[in-house]
Specification:
Blueprint lengths: L1 E3 L11 H16 L3 E3 L9 H10 L3 E3 L4 E3 L2
Parallel strand pairs: 1-2
Antiparallel strand pairs: 2-4, 3-4
């Protein structure tokens, strides 16, 4: 699988990050490669906000609840 350390969008609220997660999900379906994300607070985005966002975009907790995966 692939671990993404950070997704940073400079113009939040315009759907760019959500579009990226959608593309990652499509690539995963085509290739079978799992994507792992670990929520890390930065700027005004909290870990809880990231968890909700990941969940809303098809990712689930895995790996001792440290990571989120789209598989």
């Amino acid at each position: 699988g692939v671990e993404l350390y950070k997704i940073e969008v400079f113009n939040q609220g315009q759907g760019w990050g959500t579009t990226l997660l959608g593309l990652l999900n499509e690539i995963t379906k085509e290739t079978g490669i799992t994507v792992y994300l670990r929520p890390v607070s930065f700027g005004s985005t909290s870990i809880e906000q990231l968890r909700k966002w990941y969940s809303n975009n098809g990712f689930k907790r895995c790996c001792k609840n440290l990571y989120w995966s789209n598989k």
